[in-house]
Write a structure and sequence with these properties.
By secondary structure, the protein is of the alpha+beta class. The protein folds into two domains: 12-45; 49-193, Nucleoside Triphosphate Pyrophosphohydrolase, CATH 3.90.79. The protein is built from three helices and eleven strands. A hairpin with an 8-residue loop joins strand 8 (104-116) and strand 9 (125-136). Helix 2 packs across helix 3 (173-187). It comes from Streptomyces argyrophylli. Residues 44-178 form the Nudix hydrolase domain. InterPro entries: NUDIX_hydrolase-like_dom_sf, NUDIX_hydrolase_dom.
């Protein structure tokens, strides 16, 4: 048995979109089960996202603190954002988010990991990049709005983040997955063995 996720699509007898929002929507599918029965499945349709674990020369991760209304928390997170344009190159989107949310640029980019955030109820796919060789970006800062007007920034050592993740102090999925993936990569084949920044992403195909 090969331990690898594989694409598969079961028959859909009927589908409906009862809600369409600004960025996401809700879809209802009647899906044929292996025994021939039909089950209704409701899920959020999402454009996909990118996130950036930006690591500086002192082995600190760049974090932002932002209010998240659905969970009624201010969460420490890594820079992230939606893939607003269909087929958008995820690396370009990640570079944009790092600039807009932290006014930082990076010289070295790798794919850290790809995840489905909540595959039981949402089709969101996220590509988490590792960015190194950080420096301040040039030009004017991006004009913040809404929750971002209250955003704070910090740079926190990787070891401290691991401790706080395991202690239950940090909950943002991209931060948790990104930091633990970074530690796992270091303990494995090393960071230079990570996939290149333009590696294929079947969950969200893109053009280079």
């Amino acid at each position: 048995m090969t331990i690898k996720d594989t694409p598969e699509e079961w028959e859909v007898r009927a589908t409906d979109t009862p809600f369409v929002g600004n960025k996401t929507s809700v879809r209802t599918d009647d899906v044929v089960m292996p025994d021939g029965s039909v089950a209704r499945r409701d899920y959020q349709v999402h454009p996909g996202s990118v996130a950036v674990l930006a690591l500086d020369e002192e082995d600190r991760v760049l974090l932002i603190n932002q209010y998240r209304h659905p969970v009624r928390h201010k969460l420490w997170e890594i820079p992230a954002g939606l893939l607003d344009v269909p087929g958008e190159n995820p690396l370009h989107a990640a570079q944009r988010e790092l600039y807009e949310e932290a006014h930082v640029k990076a010289e070295d980019w790798r794919v850290l990991t790809d995840v489905y955030t909540t595959p039981g109820g949402c089709d969101e796919a996220v590509r988490i990049f590792l960015a190194r060789g950080l420096s301040d970006a040039e030009g004017e800062r991006f004009a913040a709005e809404h929750e971002e007007t209250d955003m704070q920034h910090a740079r926190v050592p990787v070891e401290e983040l691991v401790r706080r993740v395991l202690a239950g102090d940090l909950h943002n999925n991209c931060l948790v997955v990104g930091v633990l993936s970074l530690v796992a990569a270091r303990g494995g084949d090393g960071l230079d063995a990570l996939r290149p920044a333009d590696a294929p992403w079947p969950a969200r195909p893109f053009e280079n």
